[in-house]
Amino acid sequence: MDYQAGFFYVFSAVLLFSAFKVITARNPVHAVLYLMLAFSQAAAIWLLLKAEFLAITLVLVYLGAVMVLFLFVVMMADINIESVRKGFWKHFPAAAVLGIVISGQLITVLWFGFPTLKVNELAAASAMHAPDHSNTHALGVLLYTEYLLPIQVSAVILLVAMIAAIALTLRKRKDSKAIDASEQVRVKAADRLLVVPVAATPKPTSAAAVTNTEGKA
Description:
Layout: H1 3-24, H2 28-48, H3 52-76, H4 81-85, H5 88-112, H6 119-128, H7 135-143, H8 148-169, H9 181-186, H10 189-192, H11 206-216
Helix pairs in contact: 1-2, 2-3
């Protein structure tokens, strides 16, 4: 066993451990931290498989942005752990059945999905590439030629999801004190200012002034 296989087994073991802790951790913050560890180990495995673009994308996009955002949201959200645990065993049978179905599908695809792909063919395909071959360039050419339609469909789906999220978040609230700038520009003084005539206050007479002076004395 060479050193690459050794690193692969180490990264895979840490990845499986962190993935197991994600679903078993009782603290949501700990679960997010374990998920970040799982993403880092997956990026290391992709580097071993010479998929540098995917590894760097996983680190920059998920570890650098998405997971940090998730961590901040989980830390700021006041989640009552006891109330979340109450319905665990109630929904456990459905979750277990769904997990078994998904695991069966993954095993079927990995076991029977590539019957004609052999190790010798993979070695021959890798030997055909030049030493300065860029898999990032090859991935980009493949995505925007053969898989152009799926990329466009996924982009439209993500756009619809983004618009739906914005529409659900920016609902008009009754207690909002937001001011429309266009209404402020078009406003006139007569619409906001009302001059009310008020009678003048009469001056006190001399006798009343003397009485007030004696009372103060």
